[in-house]
Amino acid sequence: AAPIPAPPTPAAPPRTPVAATPAPDPAPAGATAAATATTGQGGQAETAPPEPTLAELLGELDGLVGLGTVKTEVRQQAEVLRVAGLRTAGGLRNPELTRHLVFVGNPGTGKTTVARLVAGIYRAMGLLQSGHLVECDTAGLVAGYVGQTSLKTAEMVKEAIGGVLFIDEAYGLARSEFGHEAIDILVKAMEDHRDELVLIAAGYPDPMVSFIDANPGLSSRLRLTMHFTDYTDDQLLVVFRRMCKENQYTPTRGATARLREILADQVHDERFGNARFVRTVFEAALVRQAWRLRNTPAPTAEQLAELRAGDLAAPDPPPATAG
To answer: C-alpha distances in angstroms, 323 versus 137, 168, 211, 269?
Structure first.
């Protein structure tokens, strides 16, 4: 196998859109890696797009806004696992390596996006069969009465076999009445399906420490933690411009200046949504733009694309959380 390119420096500028494209659905059994024949309208055979290559996935990772340290750590983890595979093939012993990860950071810092890319990277390296991502939170694993949590968690694990189980706000399991039952099932699943399942637990930095400490099996299997730092205002402006470009909108200079003012007024704590905050501002701006054009019967393409300073406004602050 060809070596994975050296990790990029954290200061490398972004090159592609911030939003990662989810990996295609896993191909059915017997499908080739290049394409899968499907039946379209009229009974004619169609060709499904090929799975992204390792180089494409790493390029997509590099193109995310910010996250310099995370990008480096993902590449390093991939290289460690690649070398371990080569050692096994060569008859050499390996120390016990974990493929499971902990993502810590505030909302909107790209944790789910990177989890999707990790799933695809592991698939492209042959570490996972399908590389699909199954997302859930405490409510998706815990039931309201004794005995049902284990069934609910086992069903979620079954769905994730061959890919990645991504648990957002995972610390909620340690706080839930029946959450420890779910944790026990997850620990057993990581052992029983060590070659078929990867678990990524995500959440706020401080509460995730108590979650990992809730079970010795978690602390021994979730040894690699990646820290997702908040975006700077400059990086969030890049995110906004990319959202506009992807959706064929053109912000005026006044609009980007207005966004900078809005960002400067925000308290960047655990309630600040980072890229989610910017998306909220962007989507609200589309509503204001449409209302501004309500008395223009036949707006030009330029008018339909233009976002002005008056179209942007700060959203209402989110409610306080206990996380």
So the answer is: 13, 12, 12, 12
Tokens 């494409």 sit on residue: 56
What are the residues whose beta carbons fall under 8 Å from the beta carbon of 165, sequence distance 6 or more? Answer: 134, 136, 156, 157, 197, 198, 199, 200
pTM of the model: 0.79
DSSP string over 264-301: HTS--STT--THHHHHHHHHHHHHHHHHHTTT-SS--H
Residue 268 pLDDT exceeds 90 = no
Mean pLDDT of the chain: 84
| Residue 301 in this model has a pLDDT that exceeds 60 | yes
Grade residue 42 by pLDDT with cuts at 50, 70 and 90: low
How far separated are the first and last CA of the chain, in Å rounded?
43
Sort 218 into a burial class: Cβ within 10 Å, 0-12 / 13-18 / 19+: buried
